[in-house]
């Protein structure tokens, strides 16, 4: 029976190995960790946002890093196909805000268990603790791999080793070296979906504070680079959270070195007039209190001193003494609280890796290498990256599915 070797038991590798075995090939899945899906279990804060319940054009749109390259893969195995796959493996799913799909149990372990069942049902040979060090090549054709010093012959090899972020999960960029040794071009890996560092130190005092329903805009001089509405978080180095991660692309991918300013509108649902009326009411109702104790209905407690200081008001000033000009300065800060971005956190802290094996050297209809016969690639090892919302896992599952299916077809035809 023809043998397919899959390197890496993340979502791409497990899907590829399971699909190839289901189609009648002998599939060996080699994983250097001692368990399956080590990164998968930490996704979605342990809940695993497994996909986004939307159509193929919208999936492509939400994968700004070479989404169009994945068109065939996403069509071959869509979000709806993925959801049906998990239901068939006994994992119930639910759709939340923004079409985000999670397991009903809110446990990513159920996703890994569903994939493990799929591998077992199709008799995939799972080899844990096996780090693939080298591809075996002969006349520009792949012949197997070397793992932990031992040779494993194979007719086809699928590289699914992931990117280079969160290296403690096993994604240490090994696939880049394996693909480069086979002649592939590696687009330099860089962080995508990554927290941002600020020059100001006050976010440190607010570490852990999450702001919901705020509008974040990144500015460079007069130009707006982009804006997002939703949730963000203060950290000991600056800002993080979903809308920050999404906008981080404008910092990590920019060649312009001019300073980037993050402007937070804390009250985007209110017009300036509505906000002024609201503020006047709060000041009236708390007129005997110091201003620092008069804004608790408007703002989270920890943020009040920051807003007052940024507005240049003495925090012990009684609410009834706040002048019209001071009130307008407060409104200014409430709708445009600014932070200077000094950079992004390193690749190791990014949710995904942009860059990787060049899409130009991979056939998008099969995921086969255009350079080496019998070599396929899938998942984050490829130069593809998506936004938050389940798009990266869908990309990994779809490309893994297509690679497994195409590899099996090649093997079975060669028999
Ligand atoms: C904190 C965090 C949260 C995330 N949350 C989400 C989310 O909710 N939704 C979403 O869509 N995306 C999320 N992502 C992104 C998503 O996890 C990745 O895009 C996805 O896991 C990539 O899948 P993959 O199979 O390509 O690679 P990986 O999941 O990285 O798997 C690669 C596997 O290959 C193994 N490997 C590497 N080198 C070798 C070798 N030489 N030999 C053998 N094995 C090897 C690794 O050990 C690893 O198990 C999150 C990422 C992080 C870090």
How would you characterize the overall build of this protein?
With about 425 residues, this protein is of the alpha+beta class. The chain has 13 helices and 21 strands. The protein has helices at about 10-20, 55-60, 70-75, 80-90, 110-120, 175-180, 200-205, 240-245, 250, 270-285, 305-310, 325-335, 390-415; strands at about 5, 25-30, 50, 95, 100-105, 125-130, 130-140, 140-145, 150-155, 155-160, 185-190, 195-200, 210-220, 225-235, 240, 260-265, 335-345, 350-355, 360-365, 370, 375. Strands 12-15-14-13-16-17 form a 6-stranded antiparallel beta barrel. The longest helix has 24 residues, at about 390-415. It is elongated, with a radius of gyration of 25 Å. The structure holds flavin-adenine dinucleotide.
The CATH class of the largest domain turns out to be Alpha Beta
What would the average pLDDT be, to the nearest integer? 96
| Beta-strand content bin | 25-35%
Identify the overall geometry: elongated
Give the biggest sheet: 6 strands, antiparallel, barrel
Could you tell me the CATH topology label of the largest domain.
FAD/NAD(P)-binding domain
The fourth-level CATH homologous superfamily of the largest domain is: FAD/NAD(P)-binding domain
State the low-pLDDT regions, or none.
none
List cofactors, ions and other ligands. flavin-adenine dinucleotide
Number of strands: 21
- Biggest sheet strand order reads 12-15-14-13-16-17
What is the number of helical segments per DSSP (H or I, 4+ residues)? 13
Count of domains: 2
Q: State the share of residues found in helices, binned by percent.
A: 25-40%
By oligomeric state, this entry counts as single chain
Give the termini distance in whole angstroms: 8 Å
Q: Which class best fits the helix and strand makeup?
A: alpha+beta
CATH-scheme architecture of the largest domain? 3-Layer(bba) Sandwich
Gyration radius, in Å = 25 Å
